[in-house]
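worker-3 :: picked Lipoprotein
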Amino acid sequence: MKFSKKALFLATALTSAVLAGCQAQSNVLVFNTPSPTATFNTNNQTAAVSVNTRDLRTSREVSSYTKNGEVIRLTSSPEVVQLLQQAVQQDLNAKGFQLVQGAANANVTVNVKRFFATVEQGNLRHKTNAEVNVDIAVQGAKGNFNKSFNATRGYEGALGADNKDIQKILNQAYQDVINAIYNDNEVANAIHQYK
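worker-3 :: tokens ->
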């Protein structure tokens, strides 16, 4: 009787360990938007700004690759549109602009053109190239302004690609674009010029 209880316990423990090791990794990559570093400018409070973000990509996927003959499709959390909407709103708010819904002195449109990591795999190595491409358009009563923010990052590693490597390289490209937006003054100047 003792033997069968021990055997049953060991079999259960072994099965649990094997099943825990077989859990599939999530196909959702998590991204965080850093806080803006801009100095609050009270002169910017005269402009009421509306921010809208559009996804011009053909797919919600942020990457895809093949693993064990299966295509793994990755998405992001939060959605890419939400990430960039949040970043631009945080930036304009930190710079002192009044953010409004609806009627505004200036409308800012964020167009997401590319947010994707391309993965090339061989038998012994893989190569990941991430690209983030965003346009910010300012439209006001006195005219329009448009500026592009782009970043690319690359990584080569041994064996096959995994979600962790893809998330890391895509996040670096995303952070590069966000930092460029945060350090940019042309969009803020255009809001004043064309409002």
